[in-house]
Each structure stands twice: as structure tokens, then as C-alpha cells.
Amino acid sequence: MKSSLFMGCWDFLQNFFGGNTEKIRLYTQFSNCKPSEKVLDFGCATGITAIGFKECEYLGVDIHLPSIIRAQEKYPAKDFPNIKFLCVDAYKLNIEDFDHVICAGTGHHLNDNDLINILERLTTKLKKGKSLHFIDITITYDTPLFARFMYMIDRGRFIRSKLEYDLLLSQLKNVTIEPAKIEKVIKGINRFRMIYYEIKKKE
Ligand SMILES: C[S@@+](CC[C@H](N)C(=O)[O-])C[C@H]1O[C@@H](n2cnc3c(N)ncnc32)[C@H](O)[C@@H]1O
User: Fold this and answer.
1) Whose CA is nearest to atom 9 of ligand 1?
2) Is 131 left (phi over 0), alpha (psi -120 to 50) or beta?
3) Domain that holds residue 50
4) Is ligand 1 within 6 A of the CB of residue 67?
5) Considering the chain, what is the average pLDDT of its residues?
6) For 120-174, what is each residue's pLDDT tens digit?
7) CA-to-CA dists, residue 198 to 37, 70, 119, 124, angstroms
8) 89 lines ligand 1 (CB under 6 A)
């Protein structure tokens, strides 16, 4: 069970050291969402990267109610009319026809079975020909020691290599998957390596 105090401290530290700014840069760069496109952010937590999508029609969903309450406080509807949040299990979400689904930072918290099931489910939320953007930390030969230490203490127990992701994601049906891109996180306290897959729903 996630503690709200831990969540608040983590959010504060990442903001302070620039990690959240770096996530916003990467997520918006990878997904390349255009103004007024419909975006679903699965596992949005406290709306950490929502600001990057303020010109889009953004819906952040998370199963953890305190995170959603915090996100709604950070982004009041009167100031951010395009940003909305919903506390829901993504398996039970009954809204669809999104131009983009973002699944970021959540994969390493899910075992193979749960991850594949949720990605299958999320791709059904997309319009045909549109993409799910899978973004997560990964392990590479050049991951610095400090980042490896952070991986060790991360609560997500399923940090995967590119090879492991390639094998796992190849199980998805009715999608095409672009080859992975790996980026270095250059700001923040961690120097993580981030992996990105564009998973496109077939026409
Ligand atoms: C590690 S956080 C990722 C936060 C953010 N996307 C980021 O990139 O930093 C993963 C989030 O996924 C949420 N989550 C896990 N399973 C979920 C589900 N079935 N439906 C909705 N949210 C879920 C968790 O509550 C958690 O807030």
C-alpha cells in the first residue's frame, strides 16, 4: 500500500532536483501530442506530467485516491479546463477513442502477466491507427552506479532490459511496435535510462 507521505516526499524531491521537468520533456517529446488531441495518462499519480499536455484534452487516471485528490488540487478546473483526473482501475475505465495513451513509469511495478494484460486492455481505448506510448526506466550496460542504486531501492521490482521488453511486448496482438528508443535522463538526481516504445493499434 502506497503511503501518501512517501508519495509527497518523492514528488517534492523530484521537483526540487529537476526529475519531473525531465519526465515532462521526455514524455511530451516521445508522444508528440498535438493540441486538442485526446490523451489518456494511465497511472498519472499526482498529475506529475499533466502540465506538459495542457493544450491537449488530457485525462489522468489512477487507482490511488489520495494521488487523484492531490492532482485535482494542483490543477483546478477553472485554471486548467483541458486537464481532468479520474480515480479508477484502468481495467474498468469505460471511456475510449483516445488519440494517445501514455503508460509511463508503471511497467516496472507490474509483473509480466499483469503488464501484458493491462497493455492489451489499454490499446482497446485507442482510435484505430493511434498509439500507446510505453515509457519506463530500463537497465543498460552504461547505467551509472547511482542510478543502479536507485533501481535497487525502487519499490518497482520489475526493472527490465530492452531484450526483456522486446520479448514481452511481442506478445501483444493487433498492434505494430516501433523499435525501442533509449534516452538518458540528464537532469534530476538519478541519471536513469528511459526506454520508449510506440505501440500502434492496427487500422
Ligand atoms: C510509479 S507511478 C507512475 C507515475 C507517473 N506516470 C510517472 O511517470 O512518474 C504508477 C502509478 O500507476 C498506478 N496504477 C497501478 N495500477 C493501476 C490500475 N490498474 N489502474 C490505474 N492506476 C494504476 C499506481 O497507483 C501509481 O500511481
Assistant:
1) 105
2) beta
3) 4-201
4) yes
5) 90
6) 999 999 999 999 999 999 998 888 887 787 777 777 789 999 999 999 999 999 9
7) 17, 29, 12, 15
8) yes
CATH of the domain at 121: 3.40.50.150
In total, how many domains does the chain have? 1
Closest CA to 139 of 154, 160, 155: 160
Q: Which grid cell sits at 41?
A: 495518462
C-alpha cell at 146: 547511482
CB 118 within 8 A of CB 90: yes
The contacts found for 172-175 with CB under 8 angstroms, 24 or more apart, are: 172/116, 172/119, 172/120, 172/123, 172/199, 173/120, 174/123, 174/201, 174/202, 175/123, 175/132, 175/199, 175/200, 175/201, 175/202
